[in-house]
Amino acid sequence: MNKLVVLGGGYGGLRAVQKLLAEKGIQDLSILLIEKEPYHSLKTEFYALAAGTVSDQELRVHFPNDVRLELKFAKIESIDLDKKLVHLESEEPVDYDDLIIGLGCEDRYHGVPGADQHTLSIQSMRRARKTYQVLQGVKANGRVAIVGGGLSGVELASELRESRPDLEILLFDRNAKILSSFPDKLSDYVTEWFEKNQVKLMTKANITEVERYRIYNHDDPIDVDTTIWTAGIQASKIVRDLPVDQDGIGRLITTDHHHIPGNDSVFVIGDCAASEFAPSAQLAEAQAERTVKLLAKKWRGEAFPEEMPKIKLKGVLGSLGKKQGFGYMRDKPMTGRVPRVLKSGVLWMYKFGSHS
């Protein structure tokens, strides 16, 4: 019996479980999925939960129901790679033959004083829910700061604009343009949308400190009702604490076969794994699918292929509220209604298509 433990029920963890259960050639299989929430969450949509335009009920997907899958809802404390043990809070440790680490990421505060205590987050369902509660409590015509003008910050700012037209929204980004990693055409389109919809863009920003009701940009104080942080991520602390090689944001360096070098029992996927690609649900799922194929080979006693095919991602889709969007598919930039409709379609397929 191959005892596989999967840590994290996010995009990568869920896809790994689904593919393993569907794999025809694997006979003796026991999967234990350890996740702190009793459901999979659509993390790419947490911005809408925080803005109040969807309920958290809409962002939940049930885990598969299969006799080969055991679900354990628990908080992970640490991983002992030498003893092949996963330590849990208030429970006995769990042993494994093979391990898939898919524990996601958390906010990275870049050493900005007060940022970790005085900002809201959309990195987890619980934190996005808290952000929603605080935002709904902001007084009429209040002022909200969002730090970070990447995809998350842009989607949150636009959704919040539709949810609370009365608010003054300030979007801070350290670059000269928001969406700096996107093609200029998209950055310019989104900038124009924000100007038309009165979201103030504070580019070339340098947030030097955050207090509960104040944010400092280049040391200049700006009074705010609340601040939301979307300015970068790092791997989960459990992963950062592992004594293995990591990149600059704590993601583990892996082989081309997605396992820790010298340890082909521990596979790492999603935001925990160093990659040439930007973190995304699509990337986590692609890594999960490849890992499943490799595990199947390992369990059949076959060697891993010498060379792995390159990962091909389809593109990125972002929303500007419920009616407009932007993105690129196969390197072709798109703006307006079409990318927004496409994004809704992808989400629908994810919830009701392959995951039902």
UniProtKB/TrEMBL annotation:
Single GO molecular function: NAD(P)H dehydrogenase (quinone) activity
Keyword match Flavoprotein: yes
Keywords: FAD, Flavoprotein, Oxidoreductase
A Pfam family the protein falls into: Pyr_redox_2
FAD/NAD(P)-binding domain span: 3-287
Domain of life: Bacteria
Cofactor(s) the protein needs: FAD
Keyword match Oxidoreductase: yes
GO biological process: aerobic electron transport chain
InterPro entries named in the record: FAD/NAD-bd_sf, FAD/NAD-binding_dom, NADH-Q_oxidoreductase
Record family assignment: Belongs to the NADH dehydrogenase family.
Protein name: FAD-dependent pyridine nucleotide-disulfide oxidoreductase
Organism of provenance: Bacillus selenitireducens (strain ATCC 700615 / DSM 15326 / MLS10)
